[in-house]
Design a protein that fits this description.
Blueprint (H helix, E strand, L loop, with lengths): L2 E4 L9 E7 L5 E13 L2 E9 L2 E2 L4 H8 E7 L4 E6 L3 H15 L2 E5 H4 L4 E4 L5 H10 L1
Antiparallel strand pairs: 1-9, 2-3, 2-9, 3-4, 4-5, 4-8, 6-7
């Protein structure tokens, strides 16, 4: 799995990042999220895409397309980001049905999250969706 080392200071809306975050039971798990807000009221807001590199949602294409325009950051390493379509509230409204169906909206304490290193995370996307992305460029 290819990943790119990143810094919390560079994290911005639309980035697909991963970091290790401790759950309520005390287990430290790698979380991969689509960032909606990197630091709003001390929280990182995002759509959870994977836990410990295991996809949490079979509708990833629909999530990314609803959120905005998916861009290829590094094709060889399968790193992507999303140019979010408008303000966070607008993106949330577009994703609301998927969020409710799959329970994928998450907030994380920024101070707790940044104790872990942050990475731009590779994603396994459907081949047809990848072809669409490449054709758009």
């Amino acid at each position: 799995m290819a990943k790119l080392l990143y810094t919390w200071a560079k994290v911005q809306r639309g980035d697909i990042i991963s970091f290790i975050y401790q759950n309520k039971e005390g287990r430290r798990l790698r979380r991969t999220i689509l960032v909606l807000e990197p630091k709003l009221k001390g929280l990182v807001h995002g759509i959870q895409l994977e836990i410990s590199n295991i996809p949490t949602n079979p509708e990833i294409k629909k999530i990314l397309k609803s959120a905005g325009k998916t861009e290829i950051v590094d094709e060889d390493k399968k790193i992507y980001r999303v140019e979010l379509d408008g303000k966070t509230q607008n993106v949330y409204k577009k994703l609301k049905t998927l969020i409710k169906r799959h329970g994928i909206y998450r907030t994380y304490s920024y101070d707790k999250a940044r104790k872990s290193s942050v990475l731009l995370e590779d994603l396994k996307l459907p081949a047809r969706f990848l072809k669409e992305l490449k054709d758009e460029d």
